[in-house]
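User: My instructor asked us to take a sequence, write out its structure as tokens, and then describe one feature of it. I'm not sure where to start. Here is the sequence I was given:
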Amino acid sequence: MLVEDLKVYQKLFKLALEVNDLTLNFPKFEMFELGSQLRRSSNSPPANLAEGFSNKHTNIYLESICRAQGEMRETRHHLKMAYHKKYITKNKLDYFLNEYEECAKMLYGLEKSLLKNHKK
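Assistant: Let's start with the prediction itself. The structure tokens for your sequence are:
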């Protein structure tokens, strides 16, 4: 099995691309500020999963999931900031927040499964 086989990885990868495209419409002065932060934080969750995926040390895999969750929270913050600065619509914000919430639930399920199997 590859990390690319995980549904949550696929979803996070797609979201990172969508957020990247979204930031290209930000004002020029935000391209290296909020835009850059959003691009980096949205790319980190799938990258963290890829880094820790299937590591023979379950704790390292669990740590990568925790880092991915933290980066998703950061991305959600930046998206809310973009909305309040009027760079994105409420519909766009809601779409991304809902998608990241679904990913958070998927990661929580993966974490629970790893912990359950690790204790055996």
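For the description part of your assignment, you could build on this observation: The longest helix spans residues 90-118. Try explaining in your own words what that tells you about the chain.
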